[in-house]
Every structure is written in structure tokens, then in C-alpha cells.
Amino acid sequence: MAEKQEEPSNAQNGEPDNAEEGEEKKKKLKREDLPPFEIVTGERLPAIFFKFQFRNVEYSSGRNKTFLCYVVETQGKESVTSRGYLEDEHAAAHAEMAFFNTILPKCESSVRYNITWYVSSSPCVTCADRITETLKKNKNLRLTIMVGRLFMWEEPEMQAALKNMKSAGCKLRIMKPQDFEYVWQNFVEQEEGEEAKAFVPWEDIQENFQYYEEKLAEILH
Q1: What Cα–Cα distance (Å) separates residue 155 from each residue in 146, 161, 173?
Q2: Is residue 68 within 8 Å of 103, Cβ to Cβ?
Q3: Cα dist from 132 to 15, 166, 170, 191, 220, whole Å
């Protein structure tokens, strides 16, 4: 399949549209003033980010952030469902790590956790190892990860990490067009005062899904 590489606008990456203004602001910031990483959290992400970052293209040029939408269902004395999203802000950040560090820092043994992630791309090796470790330690945690794209899937180390996730009980799936629509309806900001806009699939969304589904099947066989 052929997909042209896209260069994102500054707005799509959350940066000023005016390049000179952006550069000037960067000069004013000393490196030591920046935290090692920052995670943006919220209930709904901007539509422009979803349309660019979640698009399931083969060549993910410019998509240097990870967007993770989550649904956490806990079953204990009471059943509770929570949802939201995490976004990488700096290159050193990992949204998957942040989920376990901030959203679910501890699993109570008396509670069952059913968690679903909708992620713009599959995890890196380090995050995949953390997921595997967490699932092995917490048998009462069930994790399903729906990904738009596969990250560095041709690398042997990456393939091994994904296989380890599967062995630990993680259900890894490629997002279907219906899954993108679900994220659009439940995790994307709608214009205030306007009727919710219907999800409009992009060209090749089905073809790209099938491409990644085949690659994932080959890795996890």
C-alpha cells in the first residue's frame, strides 16, 4: 500500500502556527527549565490531534506523540467506570508508563480491573516490557490494547516484546474503522453549542487496518 508521508502543521503538534514566534519562545526557555517530561491528561482530546495522530498510515512521519485513551472498569464492592486520555508532551515521556504511574499506580487484590486502551500506535519495547511486568504481577488485571498503527514492528526486539505482552495475557488488536468512530464519539472534543459531528473515515482506513492486522498476526502467530 502506498501512503505519502505527511508533515504536520505546528497546530497539529500543539505548537504555535507562527514558526518565528515559536522559535522565539523556545529561545527564551532554558533547557533546565523544562521538566524531564510532562504528561497532558483530560477527558477529551482536540479533534485536530485525533485526525492527524490517530490516522493509521503506514509511514507515520511527524507523528512523534502518543495519544492514549482509556476506559477503566473496576469490579469490587462497587462497580466504577472511568475514562480519559493521556498525551506525550516531550520526547522522553511515555503515555503507557504514565497510565500505570498516575492513573492506576496500584492494583488492589480484592478488585478486578478491566482496562481498554485506544492508542495512536503500539508501545515501544520499554513500555511493552512494563506492560508485561504489570500483568504478570497483577492477575486481577485484564488489559486490551487497540492500536491505530504498529510502532517499529519490523525490529526483532519489538516483535519479541509484543509476543511477551500476549503471553502475559494482554489482548493486542488493530483498531477497525468502528473503533476509530468509537474514539471520535467518546474521546474527541465537539464544538460547544453545536451538534456532534459524525465521524468521517479517511481514505484507505479499511485497507490500512487490514495491512496492520496482517502484520500483527504474523508477529503473534
Answers
A1: 20, 10, 19
A2: no
A3: 34, 8, 8, 39, 15
Decide: helix, strand or coil at residue 38. coil
Write down the pTM of the prediction. Answer: 0.77
Euclidean distance between CA atoms 149 and 92, whole angstroms = 20
Rounded distance, CA 13 to CA 128, Å? Answer: 24
d(C-alpha 205, C-alpha 80), whole Å: 33
pLDDT in tens, 186-198: 999 876 655 568 8
What is the residue whose three cell numbers read 464492592? 77
Asked if residues 57 and 208 have their Cβ atoms less than 8 Å apart, the reply is: yes
Give the 3-state secondary structure percentages of the chain, helix then strand then coil, rounded to 5: 40, 20, 40
Give the tens place of pLDDT for each residue, 29-54.
332 333 334 455 567 878 888 887 78
Return the active site residues.
96
CA 74 to chain centre: 21
Return the percentage of the chain with pLDDT > 70, whole number.
73
